[in-house]
Structures are given as structure tokens and as C-alpha cells.
Amino acid sequence: MFDYFIVFAEMRTGSNFLETNLNAFEGLSCLGEAFNPHFIGYPNRDEILGVTKEVRDSDPGALIAAVKAAPGLAGFRFFHDHDPRVLDIALDDPRCAKIILTRNPLDSYVSWKIAKATNQWKLTDVKRRKEAQAEFDAGEFAAHVSQLQGFQVMLLNRLQSGGQTPFYVAYEDLQDLGVMNGLARWLGVPAQLEGLDKSLKVQNPAPVTYKVVNPDEMERALADLDAYNLTR
Question: What's the rounded Cα separation, in Å, for the pair 99 and 101?
Fold first, then answer.
């Protein structure tokens, strides 16, 4: 049915958790941020499936070919600022499964600000959680929302025009075993999980108003935004 898959996501949307659980299925392998301009797959890695960063940068199709040829069904995570040449290759290929992971942009923005402040991007031990509050910047957040909306609408329109149906996953769905098993079935993998991998912990579980130093300013800024289109 599918030759490979691509997970469209952004920073702080839960893509690491989704990848961890995709990799828990027999027959599935998610290979990190394969087309991140700063590294290949993961920081401090030199190659994926025998393809180096230098080869990937000169010919992204070479890495996609290697992903297609990998055992089982393989794929990777892709953010809006990754190699744009990959978009045409993947979006025009109906045998590439498209998974679209979304999160409320306010939550992802505040989480990103806290991660930048603490330099803690993953958490596997709650005892090592670093506490911090973010400073909400109205202009920065508006740009964040605009960028996310533009990318999501582009994906929607391209897939509609190509007659393709993606599998949408919300951040809140990541804790739902039924949704994760349903995603595997949609990918054509019969294996099912008995439980989710809980090795990655939620880094900032408090309500969003507790995570910023200026909640009143944040609420005033949000009142001026088109809330009904925030997660399109």
C-alpha cells in the first residue's frame, strides 16, 4: 500500500513521543528528522541507512530511495523549515503515507520558549525536570501562528489537489492507545501494541497561564487573534 511515510510536525508538538511509539511496532521504523538542515536524523549522527549528510544535501532523493528500500515500512519526521525539495517528492507520491501531527499553537509556543530557556528538549526522568516560565511575546506568537497556518493550509491544499488523504493526529491523541494502533493499521501494519511507551515524560504539565510570567498580556493578545482558525 505505502512505500514509506512522512510525519509532518513542528517543534514541541510531541513528535518525539510519536516516533518512539511508531518504533515500538514490529515492521515500522521512524528515522528522526531525516532532512533537518543542521543534522541528519539526530544530532551527532553522520548518516542514515548508509546515506551521509553530504549526499543527502546534494540529492535528497537518494535518502528517500534508501528509506523506501529499508526493511519493513520506514519514514521520517519533517518540519516546515526542513529541506523544501522533499515536499514535492513526498506530496506528489501517493505511495508516501502522510501523517500530520498538530498541537494547539499556544501550547507549542510556550513549550518552545521554556525549552529554549532550560535547554531541556526531552525528558525521561521527572526528577531531572527543569523549571522555568516563558515570557509571552505577542508579535512573536502571531508570527508563529501565521507560519504554522500557512504550512498546514499548503499541505491541505496539495493533498486535496492530489486526491490524497492524510492521517491526522492531535497532540492529545498521542496518549490514546487506540489511536496509535489505528495509525499502524492505516499504515498497513497488522501488529498492535498492548501499551504505549512511557519513557518520554511531559515536560510542562501545568496550565498554560502558569507557564508564562505575563499571563494578562498573553490573554489580551489572544483576544485579538482569530481563535477559530488557530488549529486549521
Answer: 6
List, for residues 148-182, the tens digit of each pLDDT value. 899 999 999 999 999 999 999 999 999 999 999 99
Is residue 147 predicted with pLDDT exceeding 80?
yes
Residue 169 · residue 179 · CB < 8 Å:
yes
User: Is 15 in contact with 75 (CB distance < 8 Å)?
Assistant: no
Give the closest residue to 145 by CA, choosing from 109, 102, 100.
Answer: 109
User: What is the grid cell recorded at 158?
Assistant: 496539495
Please tell me whether residue 219 adopts helix, strand or coil conformation. helix
Q: Where are the alpha helices (DSSP H) in the chain?
A: 15-22, 53-58, 60-69, 85-91, 105-118, 138-161, 177-186, 215-223
Name the residue with cell 486526491: 163
Q: Give, in degrees to the nearest 5, the angle at Cα 130 between 127 and 134.
A: 150
Contact 117, 172 (CB under 8 A): no
* Backbone φ and ψ of 27, nearest 5°: 100, -5
CA distance 78 to 4: 13
Q: Are 2 and 74 in contact (CB under 8 A)?
A: no
Alpha carbons 212 and 125: distance in angstroms, whole number: 23
Report phi then psi at 98, rounded to 5.
-105, 120
d(C-alpha 213, C-alpha 224), whole Å: 20
In Å, how far are 13, 117, 123, 135, 141 from 128, measured between CA atoms?
Answer: 21, 15, 7, 22, 28
Chain centre to alpha carbon of residue 70: 21
